[in-house]
Write a structure and sequence with these properties.
The complex is a heterodimer of chains A (about 160) and B (about 850). Chain A is built from 5 helices and no strands. By secondary structure, chain A is mainly α. The longest helix of chain A is centred in the last third of the chain and has 26 residues. In chain B, the strands form 8 sheets. Chain B has an 11-stranded mixed sheet, covered by helices on one side. In chain B, α10 packs across α12 and α17 crosses α22. The chains are: A mainly alpha (about 160), B alpha+beta (about 850). At the A-B interface, α1, α3, α4 and α5 of A face α1, α2 and α8 of B.
Chain lengths: ~160, ~850
Amino acid sequence: MADQGVVSAEPRPAARGVPGPLGWAAAFVVLTAVVAATAEAGAWFVPFIVGVAAGVASLRWRRMVVLAVFAAVAGWAIPMWLLALRGLPAGATARAIASLAGLPPYAAVTIVATLLLAALQVLAGAWLTRALLPRPRPRRPFHDHGDFSAISAENSPRS
Amino acid sequence: MWIRDRRVGRWRLRSVLNAVAAVVVSAALLGVLGFGYGTIPALGPALDPGRGAWTSASGGQPAGSQTLHVPGLTAPVSVSYSSQGLASIDAANTHDLFVALGYVHAKFRLSEMDLERRLGEGRLAQLAGPSDLSSDEFELRLGLLRTAQNEWARTTGQARAALLAYAQGVNDDIAAVRAAGDWPAVFTLTGSYPTPWTPVDSLVIQGVLTQELDYTTGPLDEAVLARSLGAGRTTDWLPALAKNAQTPYDPGPYVKAPLTPVAPDAASSAPGGSVTTTAQVSGAGGTPGRSDDQNAVAAAAAQLLDQLSQLPANQIHQYPDSNAWAANGPAVVGGGALLGGDPHLPQTEPSVWYEVALSAPGYQVSGVSVPGLPGILLGHNANIAWSLTDTQNAATRYYAERVRGDSYYWRGAWRPMTVVHYTIPVRGGATVNLAVDITVHGPIMTQAGQRMAVDWMGNVPSDDIAALFGINEATDFTQFRAALTGWRAPTQNFVYADKAGNIGVIAPGYYPQVAAGCQPWLPMPGTGACDVTGVIPVQAVPQVYDPPSHLIVTANQRPVTAAYPYYIGTSADFYDPGYRAAYAYKYLASHEPLSAASVAALQNNVTDSLASRVLPSLLTALGTASLSSSQRSVVSLLSSWNYAMDAGSAAATVWWTFWDDYLTTVFEPWWKAGKVPVGRDVNGLAVGPGQAPLDEDLEAWTLNDASNAAFRGPSGRGPGSAPAAMVAAFRQAVTHLSAKFGGSPSTWTWGREHARSFPSVEDAAGLGYGPRAASGDPFSEDAADGGLTATTGPSWRMIVTFDAGALSAVGVYPGGQSENPASPWYTNLVPLWWDGQYLPLPVPGAPAGSIEWSLNG
């Protein structure tokens, strides 16, 4: 007779439909690549679209929004990094942009502002999707037995 | 159950609110990012790391050899660069030469060029928002655009061809940048991209330069002072001829010839904008307002000064600090000729200059060009060299107009005003409509109360580009002089030296004259009695050729003596006090035979000539005064001082503070008693070393009239004499400096008090150079003007020598050839300039260095 108190040493299999680490990594790489490539093409609004998609996906995989934020930030960081790799003065350019924009003349200001724009777009997109898509009503408190959906207005004593 | 229902209701409400908030925030975020809001630019495209402002990094990389397609060319052109960025353009014909120059200018200075034309055309608010609306309104009223359109309509020949070719080159670069998407950051950030360049844009930039050198508020300031201090005192203290000793370069004898008529289509003509003449000529009648009422005139002057005070810095002329000297014969090593020139202008990053050599068959010139304009403004060709200083004559006349409705009263009749309508787009604000009223004198600059029109010689079409090509190609003084006969504004001292060992100077331009009895140093009645009757004929303007002294010095001083038979302005409007000119004459004469090295030493000299004149009197006065021990230690600093405004000199700090306090001690009580509205125009009205006539008065009284009534003050209880005022000012200066710096007086070094700063043309923090502790003051050859953090000084230093026919030319300016702050050529020349070093000018027709661009059509 098996001892009910013994915990199995084998890893618990992933819940059905939840990506494993490789799945999350693949999603991150794909999203990052999409954001980076579209940024090079001038499609600055793609992080918002990624956020919308992440919002949909987050209804099933809650961590999808966080992953999308990191992917968008990385996707926008890559073109900047490529500038530096090509020997272009990315830091000095960032400093100049900050100055011209009337911000403190530091490269970090522009870099942070740029990456923040990507992150904000993802969060706004995800928020929009999650707010507009139908979601289950809150579960009833522990002392209620039954489902809110079963409660009809007609049953209300004040109706 | 009702609790459950409430919970559901709240949940539904929250869901709805959440959805609404998400939609609103998302829309707002995307809207702001995509289209901007108010003055906030569209940050999405601006900061897109692949296509936004980040791509301006490509303009910041070091230039390398490459082949470029420039459609406007008819034949290949070679552009070479030295490792410092100095350029040399070699073309097969002058058309291609100016196409290439336009292309190269735009490649390195497109933002600067666009900003300058926007300034002149009244389009800054479109870029920067409501803060620049006052500048746009001023420029559209004044009419740089109208003048440029007038000039273009009459431009012919070589100048027309060059302007067209130049515009083609600029547009070729704009097209290339548009195709690549790597705009300078200022365009991407604002979302306002440059429109195609036109010849009128170039002429507007010529107008901006003219305005910055030639438009003054002298008569307005004098009207305000006359009302506050009294006409007699104002005339006495701001005289036409300075009270101190002067060293004019043209001592006479002078020619008195009939006046030359002014071109008839000056500021009153009004192409551009939509024009209406709404009033009917009604002939004499009605009751003209009392436009000659001095109080009304002074109020109008104050109103206009208020408007002008809102303009960006340096938009009108303020600081006269340029130098240009020439020497020849026995005064020069080798017996040839020598020229030194350092025009002092607002120092900015990027600079107003772009250094380049231009070569095409029949056209071989090297020097500095102005981005936006074809040709070389200061430099040399194989035979001659030239440099410029501002002549400083009064070229701005103000007229108090009698206005009734849309008419003004002139020569006994009511005349219709021409009205030009403009619309001014404002970033983040509503478009502004502007109607400019124009009389026969020029545009009306005030909007309420007494109307004031301005008759500014900069509004007269001036064939400066043709004149520029004439001097670029001249081989002797006759040709040089002839080329300048069409030059009308800004009046400049063109200092000259040539291969044959000759030197000269001529100051061409419009010197407006009015009828005897009129007072051009004040706003004049617009009734016709005091209109400009003509200008000084070119044969009578200040000029000298091969003077017996073998020396010519121009430093913005009054160029002629009191015997000169024409009115050219007052000490307040607006000649330099002459300290630099006097010192340069003395220095050059004492260092003969002169070489490039001795001229370089003078250009970098920081001796305060006024100090050398006044300090002995101060020390004499202090010798009999009762002083504290710390005051005596300061006296000992001054006693051993060599008058050099070195950054490490404590005596320099004491001198400057003393002179400022001395002026204040003597004049400030009068200013307070007269309630001078200094806030209207601090530069023109406040007591301080920047007021040349007050410096001159006080110097002259100190040396020759120590008991002048001014020392007694308006109450009669002032110091009473120059020595007493000097001792009081000295004590005040020591108190000021002790409070500010504390410690030992030997630590009060000038560099702790005084700096130079070269702000960026966009006035963006962090993109300029400095402030950095610096030597010099406004009275030294290496002038530093514009306050204790100086922003005006030598914008270009050049020395050209002709020794036995061999030409040698060096120069440097405090900046770099590229406007891109990320470029290694942004401020790379500043350290050389700062240390008093020079670089050889690129040689026309020879590679400037190993970096080569092949431009193909």
